[in-house]
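REQUEST FORM: STRUCTURE PREDICTION
Request ID: SP-0412
Submitted by: Lab K.M.
Chain count: 1
Length (residues): 279
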Amino acid sequence: MLTARLRRAWVVLGLTLWLSFSGTGQAEERFIILQSTTSTQNSGLFDAILPRFQTKTGIEVRVVAVGTGQALKNARNGDGDVLLVHAKPEEEAFVAEGWGVKRYDVMSNDFVIIGPANDPADIAGLPRAGAALRKISQTQAAFVSRGDESGTHKKERALWKVAAVDPLETGATWYREAGAGMGATLNTAVGMRAYTLTDRGTWLSFRNKGDYTILVEGDSQLFNQYGAILVNPAKHPHVKAGLGQQFIDWLVGPEGQSLIAGYAIAGQPLFFPNAPGGE
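STATUS: Completed
RESULT:
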């Protein structure tokens, strides 16, 4: 009799283990994968706001910080639940092609051109970014590009078009591609005494400034909008649509928008929340 009871106990235990590993009957794990940018990660924003979301909801947000182009590619491959990136035309195409459910404006900041204090190309204070890049090319002053298909890289290429300059086509030796995230690109630029384009949030949080400073800012073409998108579960059934949408709703809602607005370094806000009705 004891042997029969033990046998039944082992059967029940084995079935329980099988169910847990197969996922049958298992509750959805309360975490999501957020495909986002190195600029949002390097700025420190996620460290400031994500713990509040987890405390409130019990949902952990695991961030994969890459360039916007790579984040979109990862999401197309199903490697994520939510996107938070900054290349609006590509984001809208992502949704139009059925990879995302809906795009939400979340926040904005701006891009700036930074360089050494001696400013060899004499671009300080120019009102137009395109004109500044043209002077950099004319003087052949060193410039470091991210070169990684990120949102920042896409913006930089658009600005070179405005300047009517293609540094890659001309084979310019003064133009270097880092193929790296924003923080690493800034370190490379400072080390080379080169100019570069960066988002203001990463620049404010960057600690290796040396004598570097913002030289060009305020051009309307330097506007930098961030958007959030839920990856379409119709394309990838494993997407945690409920948890992902809960995160987006919080991000664009009053609490998320308030936390974004309150995130500052030395009294300077890094991002400006602009979700419709979210503040």
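NOTES: Residues 106 and 138 are 38 Å apart (CA to CA).
Reviewed by: T.R.
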